[in-house]
TrEMBL record:
Methyltransferase domain boundaries: 85-201
Compartments reported by the entry: Mitochondrion
Function: Protein-lysine methyltransferase that selectively trimethylates citrate synthase (CS) in mitochondria. Seems to conduct trimethylation in a highly distributive manner rather than in a processive manner, and thus introduces a single methyl group per binding event.
Matching Gene3D superfamilies: Vaccinia Virus protein VP39 (3.40.50.150)
Keyword Mitochondrion: yes
Catalytic activity, as annotated: N(6)-methyl-L-lysyl-[citrate synthase] + S-adenosyl-L-methionine = N(6),N(6)-dimethyl-L-lysyl-[citrate synthase] + S-adenosyl-L-homocysteine + H(+); L-lysyl-[citrate synthase] + S-adenosyl-L-methionine = N(6)-methyl-L-lysyl-[citrate synthase] + S-adenosyl-L-homocysteine + H(+); N(6),N(6)-dimethyl-L-lysyl-[citrate synthase] + S-adenosyl-L-methionine = N(6),N(6),N(6)-trimethyl-L-lysyl-[citrate synthase] + S-adenosyl-L-homocysteine + H(+)
GO molecular function: S-adenosylmethionine-dependent methyltransferase activity
Full protein name: Citrate synthase-lysine N-methyltransferase CSKMT, mitochondrial
GO biological process, one term: methylation
A cellular component term, taken from the record's GO annotations: mitochondrion
């Protein structure tokens, strides 16, 4: 499969704007303040998709930087599942994260790449159809869905997902003018649609001192209790990244 990717940290946006390296994209202060709006992302992906050859746009980093976090979790989950694992890449944009999981996971997976931007979803569908990516496991499936992540319960029934991936979605929301409330809603709804053995992984450049306090406050207000943890992903291009893991609190996890 031939494609190229552009990866960026949300912290670098103002610097890149000043250096005029975005070639007339929508990454401006206006975008930063309105990252919780559908119209913002439709405009962003329309402009990025108008340049000819398709490019996966990666917030933070690509799949290979976090595959050692994701694939072992899937392998462990597969031991207690008879069918494919249900995976949601929430706020996928045009990231290759979901397709890469579909392409490399030895265990069967049903990957849904979802985004609020219809433009991003159509770009991903078109690229996937044109490249005809083959799964590692013949029972795996890959789908794309236009979806408002604050309305997860309108798309998924309770306790139906094994893994939810959030690479930059929460970060975009909490940095926007009115997005913090929406980000909290998403965490609570994730806990409702995750299986008891499921997990939400948030990949972020936000320091644990801030993100853990926020996450613990949000899960305290959720209907279901949850455990919150963090691991360091590493430093890329001078920015430190973290993986925050939020899991429904079950009696088995408590006993551990």
């Amino acid at each position: 499969m031939l494609f190229s990717r552009l990866a960026v940290s949300l912290r670098t946006i103002p610097k890149l704007n000043r250096a005029h390296r975005w070639h007339h994209t929508s990454l401006t202060n206006e975008l930063i303040e309105n990252m919780d709006k559908k119209a913002t992302w439709d405009r962003f992906y329309t402009e990025n998709g108008s340049k000819g050859q398709f490019k996966n746009f990666e917030w933070f980093f690509g799949f290979h930087s976090v595959k050692d976090f994701i694939l072992p979790i899937l392998q462990t989950m597969s031991h207690s599942n008879s069918g494919p694992l249900n995976i949601l890449d929430m706020g996928c944009g045009t990231s290759a994260l979901g397709p890469c999981i579909y392409r490399t996971s030895p265990c069967a997976v049903k990957v849904i790449c979802a985004d609020i931007s219809a433009v991003a979803v159509k770009l991903m569908e078109k690229h996937s159809n044109s490249t005809l990516v083959q799964p590692c496991n013949p029972s795996s499936d890959l789908a794309f869905l236009e979806m408002d992540c604050t309305q997860l319960r309108g798309y998924f029934v309770a306790r139906s997902l094994d893994l939810i991936l959030d690479k930059g979605t929460t970060d975009a929301l909490v940095r926007s003018k009115e997005g913090q409330v929406k980000a909290g809603q998403i965490v609570k709804q994730c806990l409702q649609v995750l299986k008891p053995s499921g997990t939400l992984l948030q990949f972020s450049d936000e320091d644990p001192d801030a993100r853990l306090v926020w996450l613990e406050r949000e899960v305290r207000g959720a209907e279901l209790p949850a455990d919150v943890g963090v691991q360091e992903v590493g430093e890329l291009r001078g920015v430190s990244y973290f993986c925050y893991q939020i899991s429904p609190q079950t009696s088995e996890r408590v006993s551990k």
